[in-house]
Write a structure and sequence with these properties.
This protein has 110 residues and is mostly helical. It is 45% helix and 9% strand. It has a domain at 30-93.
């Protein structure tokens, strides 16, 4: 049986719009790197208030609800998307998109 080649579709307009949105949002957030400590997301150096809270306990009654898998996953996710690293990621995506755009234009080399 012959394999069918699937051409992947890259929606450049969508990528450019999303990158612009992420960059706009990153201009207003606490710079990274971020780290998680006891359900709180902090910026380095740890000063003042935490960046975000993904609590594993009830703040009003002080009862320990235990660390849920979802809370731990949310905390890891938020920490990984710190502006310092995400800005570098977007720069890499921009570079790939520029190469992609150059390949599409006739008479240009990648």
């Amino acid at each position: 049986m012959a394999k069918q080649s699937k051409q992947s579709h890259v929606d450049v307009k969508f990528l450019k719009e999303q990158i612009a949105t992420y960059r706009r949002l990153m201009r207003r957030v606490t710079p990274g790197p971020w780290f998680e400590y006891r359900g709180l997301i902090w910026s380095e150096p740890r000063e003042g208030q935490p960046v975000a809270s993904v609590r594993h306990e009830d703040l009003y009654f002080g009862t320990k609800a235990g660390v849920s898998k979802e809370c731990a996953a949310n905390s890891d996710y938020i920490t990984a998307l710190n502006p310092k690293d995400f800005q570098e990621f977007l720069a890499q995506v921009d570079a790939i998109m520029k190469k992609f755009d150059q390949k599409k234009k006739p008479g240009t080399s990648p």
